[in-house]
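Methods, example record. To illustrate the input and output format used throughout this study, we show the complete record for Stage VI sporulation protein F. The sequence lines were provided to the predictor; the line carrying structure tokens was produced by it.
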Amino acid sequence: MDNGFFKNIEKKTGVNMKDIFDLANSLQNANFKDEKTVRGVIRKVSQLANKPISRELEDQICNTIIKDGKSLDFNTISNMMNKK
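The corresponding predicted structure is encoded as:
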């Protein structure tokens, strides 16, 4: 894909594509059974999306991912944040 495509996404979302790619790379070998790792990813997604979340919602997302075996990706966390 060309650079213009990514610039267009950045313009529409306000999210830097480098940050998205950095997050995606960090997820590749992450241990999603580790609460500290999962909380770090949740906070990073919240920050990138510019959508602060409460500690209660962070706890719910974290528990869902760790205990229920939900896959962890940007869309999963974003959808969970939007339900509140």
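Annotations derived from this record:
The chain has a mean pLDDT of 80.
The chain is about 70% helix and 0% strand.
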